[in-house]
């Protein structure tokens, strides 16, 4: 790939640098140079994600911490038709797009409201990048940075995601090649190219390279987490900036590097959220029913008739202890009774491995199923058969795919 193909057009490079400099004049330049570049790695997102409004809320609150936004947050899930802003929301503060996967619905009384499409809940990379963009909308609204021109505001919001440290997330989402298995009676593969965001992948990678070039650090970690095409755009942008803009930091209006505060601590920013997961999970009952029932729609799940090994071991421990006590009592009567007690204990422990009623094979669901159930009432998965243990679900799904391929 030539440098010409990897870089934005010359006028767009000038546009990006000019608006980045303007953003640094309007907002806190220290955030641009001190906040960590958020990477799509578990250590940056330590919170447990669930396919629900609560799971999305956790993600928003984590992004708020990276963006240094001290706001409350509310999340509304929707399917198909997005919600509309309610109440007295300032002009320009809400960004509502027809068919959007995520929405910023404005700030009222210190609480930012967001919407997220249920279709995103099975796409961690997509929902994280989408919410990063919507959190950037909230940041611009909170700091009165938004402009009236809708298209310009969307591009500036993408640029703001880079300023906030979300550049790798946005760049990766700007162009994604995805493959997935589709279950519609048979199994088949589907490839798609998906675009999220408003700036092009080259433009986002150029803005990310400008941030890292100005900092003088972070190149290797960012490049390692970029998709293949984005990594090539990023390298080309860095080469161009190092050659053509060696004094970029001062051109952006940044003070000398010696006066910069120390970088923000990733350990501090990734500490546990104020409420525990258990407290957050208490809110799950308030999530829309479709958020629960849409988890595995179109995917095969199985009836599990035996307990998992972990469950069986936990139940076997107290039975084993009781068996030992019984053996001690039996020894006081006659040694032959010890063998009888051991045999009975073994039978009971073996029986613990069976369930009288089957459950869904998905670990996050485990809803009770009937013998005739065709659809799991908990996660919406298609009941494709019976298995002995939940650990066998992946092998059973693979067997289904192979069988469907052979029949075609």
UniProtKB/TrEMBL annotation:
Transmembrane residue ranges: 313-331, 337-353
Keyword Membrane: yes
Superkingdom of the organism of origin: Bacteria
Keyword set, alphabetical order: Membrane, Transmembrane, Transmembrane helix
Protein name: Peptidase MA superfamily protein
Organism: Nannocystis punicea
Native organism taxonomy: Bacteria, Pseudomonadati, Myxococcota, Polyangia, Nannocystales
């Amino acid at each position: 790939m030539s440098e010409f193909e990897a870089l934005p057009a010359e006028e767009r490079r000038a546009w990006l640098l000019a608006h980045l400099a303007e953003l640094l004049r309007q907002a806190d330049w220290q955030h641009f140079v001190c906040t960590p570049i958020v990477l799509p790695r578990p250590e940056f997102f330590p919170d447990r994600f669930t396919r629900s409004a609560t799971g999305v809320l956790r993600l928003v609150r984590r992004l708020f911490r990276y963006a240094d936004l001290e706001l409350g947050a509310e999340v509304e899930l929707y399917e198909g038709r997005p919600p509309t802003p309610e109440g007295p929301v300032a002009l320009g503060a809400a960004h509502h797009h027809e068919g959007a996967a995520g929405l910023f619905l404005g700030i009222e009384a210190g609480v930012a409201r967001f919407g997220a499409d249920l279709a995103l809940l099975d796409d961690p990379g997509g929902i994280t990048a989408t919410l990063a963009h919507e959190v950037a909308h909230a940041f611009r609204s909170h700091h009165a940075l938004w402009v009236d021109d809708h298209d310009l505001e969307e591009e500036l919001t993408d640029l703001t995601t880079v300023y906030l440290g979300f550049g790798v997330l946005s760049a990766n989402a700007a162009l994604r090649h995805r493959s997935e298995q589709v279950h519609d009676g048979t199994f088949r593969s589907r490839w798609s190219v998906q675009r999220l965001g408003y700036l092009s992948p080259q433009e986002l990678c150029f803005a990310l390279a400008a941030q890292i070039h100005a900092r003088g650090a972070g190149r290797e970690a960012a490049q390692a987490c970029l998709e293949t095409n984005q990594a090539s755009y990023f390298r080309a942008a860095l080469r161009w900036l190092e050659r053509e803009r060696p004094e970029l930091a001062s051109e952006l209006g940044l003070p000398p590097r010696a006066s910069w505060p120390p970088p923000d601590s990733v350990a501090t920013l990734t500490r546990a959220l104020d409420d525990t997961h258990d407290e957050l999970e208490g809110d799950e009952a308030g999530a829309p029913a479709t958020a629960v029932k849409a988890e595995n729609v179109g995917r095969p799940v199985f009836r599990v008739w035996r307990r998992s090994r972990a469950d069986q071991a936990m139940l076997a421990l107290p039975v084993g202890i009781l068996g030992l006590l019984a053996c001690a009592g039996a020894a006081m009567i006659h040694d032959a009774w010890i063998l009888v007690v051991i045999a009975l204990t073994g039978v009971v422990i073996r029986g613990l491995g069976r369930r009288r009623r089957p459950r869904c094979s998905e670990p996050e669901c485990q809803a009770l199923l009937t013998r005739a159930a065709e659809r799991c009432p908990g996660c919406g998965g298609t009941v494709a058969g019976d298995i002995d243990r939940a650990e066998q679900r992946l092998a059973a799904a693979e067997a289904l795919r192979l069988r469907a391929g052979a029949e075609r």
